[in-house]
Amino acid sequence: VQLQASGGGSVLAGGSLKLSCEVLGSIFRIRDMGWYRQAPGNKRDLVATISNEGGTYYAESVLGRSTISRDNAKNTMYLQMNSLKPEDTGVYYCYADVAPWYGEGSKVIYGDYWGKGTQVTVSS
Question: What is the Cα–Cα distance from 71 to 23, expressed in whole angstroms?
Answer without folding.
Answer: 11
